[in-house]
Amino acid sequence: MHKGQSVAVVVPALNEEASIATVVGGFRALPAVDHVLVIDNGSHDETAAKARAAGARVVPEARHGYGAALRTGIEHALELGAGIVVLVEADGTFAPADLGRLLAALEGGDLALGSRSDELHGALELGNRAMARLLAALWWRSSCPLSDVGCTYRAFTAPAWAALQGGACAEGPEFSPQMICAAFERGLRVREVPVRYFARSGGESKHTGSTWAVVRTALRMLRAILVKRLGPRR
Q: Which regions of the chain are under pLDDT 70?
C-alpha cells in the first residue's frame, strides 16, 4: 500500500526466463507493492513458471505486442483493486528501489514518467531527447518538460487510466509515447523523474536489439505521436 492505495506492478514478458524471477522478487520485497502481475506474451521458455515460483500472478496474453500485454495487465490490476498501477520491464533494466521516486512524483498528480536520459548515450540519447521535445512542443499548453519518451518505467492512478485508456490503444512499442500524448491531450498532471537504467540481465531486446530494431521502433513512435496530434480527431 502507498498512502492508503493498493499498488500493482505490471510486467510484460516474452522469453525473459533469465531475469524474470529477480524482477518479480525485487518488487515483491517492496512494502508499497501489493501485487506483481507478469503478462506472458507467448513465451516459449520458462518465463511463466519462474514468475509463478517467484510469487507473481501470471496472466497469459495471446495477442502479441507490448501494448497489448500492458493493456491486459492494467485491466487485471484494476480488477484486483489497484489504485496505482506501475509498468516496468521484465529484463532487469530498471531498479525496483526507484519505484519510490515514481510514487513520490505521483502524489498530487496523475502520471509519473521515468527518464533514462542520464543513462543513455549516443544516437539513442539524441533521438529520445529530440522526440521528447517534439512531443512536449505539440502539446505546449498542457505538457511538462520531457527528456525521454521511450522509458517504460512509469506509474499512474486508476482514475488517470480511466481518462486516457481510449487514447492509448496501440498494441506495439508506440503504446508508451501514445500514453503520454493522451495524458497531455486530456490535461492530466504529468511529471517526469530520473530513474536508473542497467544492462539487460539476459536475452535480447525486441525493440532495441539491433540498429534496425531501434530505427523501426523510433519510426513507429514518431508516427504515433504525429498521428495523435495531427490526425483526424475521434
A: 202-213, 230-234
Distance of alpha carbon 45 from alpha carbon 36, whole angstroms: 20
Domain boundaries, the chain: 7-230
The DSSP result for the chain, as a single string, is -BTTB-EEEEEEESS-TTTHHHHHHHHHTSTT--EEEEEE-S-SSSHHHHHHHTTPEEEE--S-SHHHHHHHHHHHHHHTT-SEEEE--SSS-S-GGGHHHHHHHHTTSSEEEEE-TTT--HHHHHHHHHHHHHHHHHTTTT----S-S----EEEEHHHHHHHGGG---SSTTHHHHHHHHHHHTT--EEEEE------SSS--TTTSSHHHHHHHHHHHHHHHHHHHHS---
CATH architecture of the domain covering 7-230? Alpha-Beta Complex (3.90)
Question: pLDDT digit string (tens) for 20-48?
Answer: 999 999 999 999 999 999 999 999 999 99
pTM, rounded to two decimals: 0.90
